[in-house]
Amino acid sequence: MTLFEPIKVGTCQLQHRVVHAPLTRLRNTEDNIPTDLVAEYYSQRATEGGLLIAEATAVSSKTGGYPRIPGVFTKEQQEGWSKVIQGVHGKGGYIFSQLWHGGRAGSSLFLENNLAPFAPSPIAIRGDNQFTNTRYEVPREATQDDIKDFIQQYITAAKNAIDAGFDGVEIHAANGYLIHQFISSSSNKRTDIYGGSIKNRARFVLELTEAVVNAIGAERTAIRFSPWGGSHLDVDDDTPYETYSHILKKLDPKLAYVHFVEPRDDFLRIPDLENSLDPFRKVWKDNPFITAGGYTTRPETISAVSQETGNLVAIGRAFTSNPDLVYRLKNDLPLSKHQRDYFYTTDAIGYTDYQPYDKNANP
Ligand SMILES: Cc1cc2nc3c(=O)[nH]c(=O)nc-3n(C[C@H](O)[C@H](O)[C@H](O)COP(=O)(O)O)c2cc1C
């Protein structure tokens, strides 16, 4: 079964293709430092030759982030991550850091002098920020100097992540955050070289990825996209196939992997059953491709998609409630249901207290 066949991803020799999707859980300190509890969570889910992608991590103090997300811009945060990484490596697993900048999804509450967050264009997300219970703000339009500064923040964060011991970094270009805001036609109305045509909207992500590759190497750099998946943050693209095919063709083909969120993802929105990732799989055929989204609610398709495509499959919600998910999938055992109420709470309950499979407790 392809799902349990080895595959080389960057510098990591994986033994199977079940990947822990990046999952924000807000269990870090107010200073964005991963705690021992966070280390316990990842270590519980680490497996021999298995890949975990860690939760979205602020690249700098200037992201306007969310409360209690982790960062990778201070020594203390690096030390917190090193403990997490040791726990994962101790079990023979691998872990990538997901580098994140929220752009207009961030909040002035977390920014110096309460300045508004940055975005490609001064267009607010419609609706409320669920993490701050405030309206999304009209963002500041980034200047070209600001764009240079964003790229510098990613370079520093990538180097910090590798210094802390991560096996690689995944650039978060999905789900409606800063990079996705630049790519998408609905959120990027710029008239300079970073807006307008596909080529221009793709310029930021391509320059940024190239800079990270130059800093830490292609085999330690990866990227996540969601061509259809930013609608909950009011991000949509008029021509997802053309836009993302252009980006894929321009990316360094030696990246550790590309990671795509399925249009069929039912997390936060109505699944799109008409579109498919297949055209992107055809473009990115020589190096690892991770597919994610919706497999939690259709676990029977995990093995099938891996068999058909050779893809790695990232699982989100089911990994929260099944620390031994890989074992359960391998042995065709039932899964424990995830509990949304504990996604964004602060303690061990609904985080590290899920139990491994027990045939008496799970008949
Ligand atoms: C609690 C929670 C937190 C998430 N945090 C992130 C994140 O930090 N970065 C990211 O790219 N996606 C994030 N996602 C999306 C997941 O990575 C994944 O794409 C989504 O849950 C769909 O997969 P699933 O159907 O297996 O749950 C999050 C999802 C959930 C449920």
Task: Write a structural description.
This protein is of the alpha/beta class and 363 residues long. It has a single domain (2-342), classed as Aldolase class I (TIM Barrel, Alpha-Beta Barrel), CATH 3.20.20. The protein is built from ten helices and 14 strands. The chain has helices at 36-45, 75-90, 144-164, 178-183, 198-216, 240-250, 278-283, 300-309, 317-321, 325-330; strands at residues 7-9, 12-14, 18-20, 51-58, 94-100, 118-119, 128-129, 134-135, 140-141, 168-173, 221-225, 257-261, 289-292, 312-315. The strands form four sheets. It has an eight-stranded parallel sheet. A two-stranded antiparallel sheet has the order 1-2. It is globular. The two termini are 26 Å apart. Flavin mononucleotide (FMN) binds next to strand 4 and helix 9. One of its GO terms (cellular component) is cytosol. Residues 3-335 form the NADH:flavin oxidoreductase/NADH oxidase N-terminal domain. Its cofactor is FMN.
In short:
With 363 residues, the protein is of the alpha/beta class. It has 10 helices and 14 strands. The protein has helices at 36-45, 75-90, 144-164, 178-183, 198-216, 240-250, 278-283, 300-309, 317-321, 325-330; strands at residues 7-9, 12-14, 18-20, 51-58, 94-100, 118-119, 128-129, 134-135, 140-141, 168-173, 221-225, 257-261, 289-292, 312-315.
